[in-house]
Automatic annotation (TrEMBL):
Principal location class: membrane
Gene Ontology MF term list: ATP binding
Residues annotated as domain ABC transporter: 1-231
Location in or out of the cell: Cell membrane
Taxonomy of the source species: Bacteria, Bacillati, Bacillota, Bacilli, Bacillales
Keywords carried by this UniProt record: ATP-binding, Cell membrane, Membrane, Nucleotide-binding, Translocase, Transport
Domain of life of the organism encoding this protein: Bacteria
Protein name per the record: Energy-coupling factor ABC transporter ATP-binding protein
PROSITE patterns in alphabetical order: ABC_TRANSPORTER_1, ABC_TRANSPORTER_2
Length: 276
């Protein structure tokens, strides 16, 4: 059972002053994330999710309230556009760049870089030019750079929004592996199909907390048949798997679980139609 905190916010407010008015991005937000959690942050454009991740990464000051990142300085951020984060010419140079800035010895830099590239399955490309990498490989390279610095808290701001389905699956699979190793993952997204990879969903709406709970409850609610789910209340479209399960529930079938991922859906179908 987890009992250590990775990030905590109490009454956190972020506002920006313009010539005409004060614009609030986050409003009196209370949030606690425990070490080892995999949390998805969901919200429409302008909801405040990117600002929240920047606060967690130490890249944005708050206007009011209190925040504490207990994993600091072992926090690394991966953003939507990997090209904006690239500096090195080769894969190994890119991963080593941050370590060099920390004053780490060359031998230790290379060792850490190779271990990090191995985790994201890119060690065979360590001497490849960054320019020749695909979008998915560039995102994996950004993650490798974060791992090389021994980051225990990874914040990822829509890292798959510009990727094809195969690359997206690869990034999500790596994130799940890192989560199983005990790292804390906070991932902002607008893609509902991704939420089943995590264990917790936080929804922001105009800077306010609109939901905090499991992916299952987010999609199905407390009563999967008669009440609107938090997903529907927020105006989000449910994944195809969830829509299919709801059709089965409305037809009167009793299901062993309410799946949000393909493996869970497969178990439900096998329970309904066992193959022997």
């Amino acid at each position: 059972m987890r009992n250590k905190t990775a990030f905590e916010a109490d009454g956190m407010t972020v506002a920006f002053q313009s010539a005409a008015e004060v614009s609030y991005v986050l409003r009196e937000l209370n949030l606690r994330i425990e070490q080892g959690e995999f949390v998805f942050v969901v919200g429409r454009n302008g909801s405040g999710k990117s600002t929240l991740l920047k606060v967690m990464a130490g890249l944005c000051p708050i206007s009011r309230g209190r925040v504490q990142t207990y994993s600091w300085p072992e926090v690394q951020a991966v953003f939507q556009n990997p090209d904006a984060q690239m500096i090195g010419e080769s894969v190994i140079e890119e991963v080593c760049f941050g370590l060099e800035n920390q004053g780490m010895a060359a031998e230790e830099r290379v060792r850490r870089a190779e271990e990090a590239l191995e985790k994201v399955r890119m060690k065979h490309l360590m001497h490849q030019s960054v320019e020749k990498l695909s979008g998915g490989q560039k995102q994996l390279l950004c993650i490798a750079g974060a791992l090389a610095s021994d980051a225990q808290l990874l914040v990822l701001d829509e890292p798959t929004s510009m990727l094809d389905p195969i690359s997206r699956e690869q990034i999500l699979t790596v994130a799940q592996t890192l989560h199983k190793e005990g790292r804390t993952i906070v991932w902002a997204t607008q893609l509902m199909e991704e939420l089943g990879y995590g264990e917790r969903v936080v929804v922001l709406d105009e800077g306010n907390m609109a939901y905090d709970g499991t992916p299952e409850r987010f999609f199905y609610g407390d009563d999967s048949v008669s009440e609107l789910s938090p997903c529907e209340q927020g105006g989000f479209r449910k994944p195809y798997i969830v829509e299919t399960v709801e059709h089965l529930l409305h037809s009167g079938l009793s299901l062993s679980e309410r799946p949000v991922t393909i493996p869970q859906f497969k178990r439900v179908i096998e329970d309904l139609c066992p193959f022997r």
